[in-house]
Design brief:
11 helices; alpha/beta; Rossmann fold; 345 residues; three-stranded antiparallel beta sheet
Length: 345
């Protein structure tokens, strides 16, 4: 499979900004994500015509209009299918799927999990605001239980999806999480996702200030951020905490569950180190609930053969066979058959 062509041209963020008027609500977290993606793309050394942005339906799915690259605004939940076909048809493209929690995990759930298990060499960015924003505030598959919305005035009785847990269950080979306003961390994660060969899944906490404002205040407020976030680094101890508070760490207890504890010089060796190749650890990390911190960064990353490489290898093998098919020869050939009339008719 041909690699994505790098370009010696030096691009800037402005090169990836389209001339379209951005139609998101003022203050929407999508603006920040758009800015970071444009900045990261400029630094990848890839020509603009080698990028393709594929989206479904939702506020996030306006994304292709605002990127000065190729793009395709498709139909609800089906962006993974379009993206897979595009990657197979043109392996040199850097394909990015932009989706939301409703688009990917509700109507598009089936397409989403099969893209992950196939391990197509592309990136998925899932904007999770825990609400349906485009259709004006109904609860979504990631809305918390008890959520009161226009479609659940008495509170949702649904148990929510954990997007990263779904991705791990579908055997994704790259799973990461970030926040719309975490600028540096978001850029670093997007770059790591691009480097990965296979399907890279990145969940982005995205604030919808109109229909679900402050959904992620605990991890974004500077007063609580330290104790509410765990920034992962492969091979490094999983330590977190507020500047003015105690240093906290994670360890395994007797029930094989992660538990927080105050770190001292005497017990520092009990702090677990992050291993991004451990599926067991990744599963524990993505299911942490308050008062446990939320894990951010590269949560899980392993190597596995990609679907597109396998398909293209089969095509190449079939085309190189001595008896390779020739459609023109087949149509002009003498192998014909006669359909006899049905005598009982």
């Amino acid at each position: 499979m041909a690699p994505i062509t790098e370009d010696p041209t030096e691009y800037t963020k402005k090169d990836f900004m389209s001339d379209q008027t951005i139609r998101w609500c003022p203050g929407c977290g999508d603006y920040s994500i758009l800015s970071q993606v444009q900045t990261v793309f400029a630094g990848l050394g890839i020509p603009r015509e080698k990028f393709a942005i594929i989206s479904g339906i939702g506020c996030s799915s306006r994304f292709p209009y605002y990127m000065n690259t190729y793009g395709f605004h498709t139909i609800h939940g089906r962006a993974p299918a379009f993206a897979t076909g595009l990657k197979l048809a043109n392996p040199e493209l850097s394909v990015w799927v932009i989706t939301g929690d409703g688009d990917a995990l509700s109507i598009g759930g089936n397409h989403f999990i099969h893209l992950l298990r196939r391990n197509v060499n592309l990136q998925i960015l899932l904007f999770n605001n825990r609400i349906y924003g485009l259709t004006k505030g109904q609860y979504s598959p990631t809305s918390e239980a008890g959520k009161k919305t226009k479609s659940t005035p008495m509170g949702s009785v649904d148990h929510p999806f954990e997007p990263c847990a779904v991705a791990l269950g579908a055997e994704a080979t790259f799973v990461g999480r970030t926040v719309d306003i975490f600028v540096k961390e978001q850029r670093d994660l997007l770059e790591e996702a691009h480097k990965h060969t296979g399907t890279s899944f990145v969940e982005i906490f995205q604030n919808c200030n109109i229909f679900n404002d402050n959904a992620f205040t605990a991890v974004t407020d500077r007063k609580t951020r330290g104790s509410a976030t765990l920034m992962l680094q492969h091979g490094e101890p999983m330590i977190y905490g507020d500047k003015d508070g105690p240093e906290m760490g994670l360890r395994l207890n007797a029930d094989l569950e992660l538990e927080p504890f105050e770190v001292t010089d005497e017990n520092r060796d009990q702090v677990l180190k992050h291993n991004e190749k451990s599926l067991v650890l990744a599963t524990l990390l993505v299911r942490m609930r308050p008062p446990m911190p939320v894990a951010f960064g590269v949560i899980y990353r392993v190597d596995r053969p990609t679907y597109d490489a396998g398909v293209l290898a089969q095509v190449e093998k079939a085309q190189s066979a001595p008896n390779a098919g020739d459609l023109a020869r087949l149509l002009k050939g003498r192998n014909t058959w006669t359909v006899a009339p049905n005598k009982g008719a």
